[in-house]
Amino acid sequence: MSVAGKYKVNAATPNGSVEILLELIEIGGAYIGTLSAQNNFTELKEIKVDENSFSANATIMFNNDRFGAIIKGTVDGYTITGNIQTQYLPVAFIGQKITQ
């Protein structure tokens, strides 16, 4: 199964759970993607896919602060798991593919 799709995920931050919408789109063998949470939207950069795993870079806005992040995840059926590594700490996430 391809990693392409739209996923609703929950990230376990020190301040509680944050709902994130993650989208990965395959175009001619290459991937583009977006990440949105708490009214913030960012494009994923340098997306790499290896079978059912992916990694990407992003600039994330949180509490009026911008910082770089590395997103790594694995898709198993309709479930996605992974982490978002920031300069502060890694944040684990888990979610489901939106099939509608």
Give a description of the structure:
With 100 residues, the chain is mostly beta strands. The chain contains no helices and eight strands. The protein has strands spanning 5-13, 16-27, 30-37, 40-50, 53-62, 65-76, 79-86, 90-97. It has an eight-stranded antiparallel barrel with strand order 1-2-3-4-5-6-7-8. The model has no long low-confidence stretch (mean pLDDT 92).
Q: Assign the CATH topology.
A: Lipocalin
Let me know the largest β-sheet.
Answer: 8 strands, antiparallel, barrel
If you average the pLDDT, what whole number results?
A: 92
Number of domains: 1
Beta-strand content bin: over 45%
Order of helices and strands: EEEEEEEE
Helical fraction: under 10%
- Total beta strand runs: 8
Shape: globular
Q: CATH homologous superfamily, by name?
A: Quinohemoprotein amine dehydrogenase alpha subunit, domain 2
The end-to-end distance, rounded to whole angstroms, is: 17 Å
Output the strand order for the largest sheet.
1-2-3-4-5-6-7-8
Radius of gyration from CA coordinates = 13 Å
Number of helices: 0
Task: Summarize the topology.
Layout: E1 5-13, E2 16-27, E3 30-37, E4 40-50, E5 53-62, E6 65-76, E7 79-86, E8 90-97
Antiparallel strand pairs: 1-2, 1-8, 2-3, 3-4, 4-5, 5-6, 6-7, 7-8
Descriptive key words:
single chain; 8-stranded antiparallel barrel; 8 strands; globular; mainly beta; 100 residues; Lipocalin
Brief description of this entry?
With 100 residues, the chain is an all-beta fold.
